């Protein structure tokens, strides 16, 4: 026997090393997943149009938010909790009210010929509006849009909008369009 | 009679700790995989507002962050207590945003450059004025995909 067996390396400190690494990762970990509301900004127009595109007043839901976070919707002071219903009513116009948006006959896949609202949501903030309020308004509008889509999807397929496939989602989107236009900022009552 | 053991006389055998490293390694791998490192040191206090209609932000490598909030205490002497913009690691002004967006684009592969999303992490008590300015700058830089970072409302 010329060779001696190599002795096993003592591995009792392995646990310590692993613990050290573990603690490092525990401390440096951030588990939070970023969530948020997606928006698409309108591109800056190449040249300024001579006049603003004409939209009938009945087709516009004008939402104004002032620096005290008060809400004015089509000349009516509302609280934030009423905005969702108001928006849904505006887009659907169930009673064909003269003051609510017109509808246009459109052919949409799956649904056939349907009346689609020509409504348009216009949002205007003051520079002094709080960001929290702005997000709340955006959130309510998004919620109104989602509820409308869910409603239509339920009627047609008995499924939620999120469970539909791409084409079906597109059809529902065309059926209850939610156009939000953010007006160029105004500065009422000075800075801050 | 040797058939019956006498209780109490024998010591308990030691629990083997040979599997301890394995357990620890398992935990270690879990944290290594689930970890995301903080990319930037925050100089401003950001408490994003809550909302219900939130969407998960996917593809984190295609997101550039803009932080807006009141400077942290140690910076308040120099920066004041008005909300400030933070890009990367430093305080910036609205004018820096275009350059920042260009730099962010340069850092990405060419085919991914138009897929960049800007995530606005803004403190909830900030006034809209500064955000309107930021949005204008983003439009000028034609970085049109925007995400307002929000927490989901706890129900």
From TrEMBL, chain A:
Membrane disposition: Single-pass membrane protein; Single-pass type II membrane protein
Major place of residence: membrane
Keywords assigned by UniProt, alphabetized: Cell membrane, Membrane, Protein transport, Transmembrane, Transmembrane helix, Transport
An annotated GO BP: protein transport
GO molecular function: transmembrane transporter activity
Gene Ontology, cellular component aspect: plasma membrane
Domain of life assignment: Bacteria
Keyword Protein biosynthesis: no
Protein localization: Cell membrane
Family stated for the protein in its record: Belongs to the ExbD/TolR family.
UniProt name for this protein: Biopolymer transporter ExbD
TrEMBL record, chain B:
A Gene Ontology BP annotation from the UniProt entry: protein transport
Keyword Magnesium set for record: no
Domain of life: Bacteria
Swiss-Prot/TrEMBL keywords: Cell membrane, Membrane, Protein transport, Transmembrane, Transmembrane helix, Transport
Keyword Transport applies: yes
Stored Pfam families: ExbD
Membrane topology classification: Single-pass membrane protein; Single-pass type II membrane protein
GO CC annotations on file: plasma membrane
Localisation per UniProt entry: Cell membrane
A molecular-function term among this protein's GO annotations: transmembrane transporter activity
Entry's transmembrane regions: 12-33
Entry-linked InterPro entries: ExbD (IPR003400)
Family assignment from sequence similarity: Belongs to the ExbD/TolR family.
The name this protein goes by in its record: Biopolymer transporter ExbD
Protein's organism: Labilibaculum filiforme
């Amino acid at each position: 026997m010329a060779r001696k067996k190599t002795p096993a390396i003592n591995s009792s400190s392995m646990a310590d090393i692993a613990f050290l690494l573990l603690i490092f990762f525990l401390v440096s970990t951030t588990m939070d997943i970023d969530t948020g509301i997606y928006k698409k900004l309108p591109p800056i127009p190449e040249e300024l149009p001579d006049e603003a595109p004409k939209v009938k007043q009945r087709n516009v839901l004008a939402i104004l938010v002032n620096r005290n976070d008060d809400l004015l919707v089509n000349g009516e002071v509302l609280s934030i909790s009423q905005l969702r219903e108001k928006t849904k009513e505006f887009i659907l116009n169930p009673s064909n009210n003269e003051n609510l948006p017109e509808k246009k006959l459109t052919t949409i896949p799956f649904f056939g010929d349907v009346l689609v609202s020509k409504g348009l949501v216009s949002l205007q903030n003051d520079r002094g509006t709080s960001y929290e309020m702005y997000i709340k308004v955006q959130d309510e509008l998004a919620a109104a849009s989602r509820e409308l889509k869910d409603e239509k999807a339920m009627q047609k397929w008995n499924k939620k909008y999120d469970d539909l496939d791409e084409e079906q989602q597109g059809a529902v989107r065309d059926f209850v369009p939610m156009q939000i236009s953010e007006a160029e900022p105004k500065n009422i009552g000075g800075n801050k | 009679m040797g058939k019956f053991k006498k209780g109490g006389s024998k010591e308990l055998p030691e629990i083997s700790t040979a599997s301890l490293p394995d357990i620890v390694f398992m935990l270690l791998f879990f944290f290594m995989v689930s970890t995301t490192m903080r990319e930037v040191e925050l100089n401003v206090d950001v408490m994003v507002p809550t909302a219900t209609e939130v969407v998960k932000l996917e593809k984190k490598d295609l997101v550039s962050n803009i932080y807006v909030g009141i400077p942290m205490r140690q910076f308040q002497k120099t920066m004041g207590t008005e909300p400030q913009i933070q890009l990367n690691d430093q305080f910036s002004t609205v004018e820096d945003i275009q350059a920042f967006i260009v730099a962010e684009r340069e850092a990405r592969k060419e085919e991914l450059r138009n897929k960049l999303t800007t995530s606005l992490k803004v403190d909830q008590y900030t006034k809209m004025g500064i955000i309107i300015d930021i949005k204008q700058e983003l439009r000028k830089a034609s970085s049109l995909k925007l995400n307002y970072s929000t927490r989901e409302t706890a129900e």
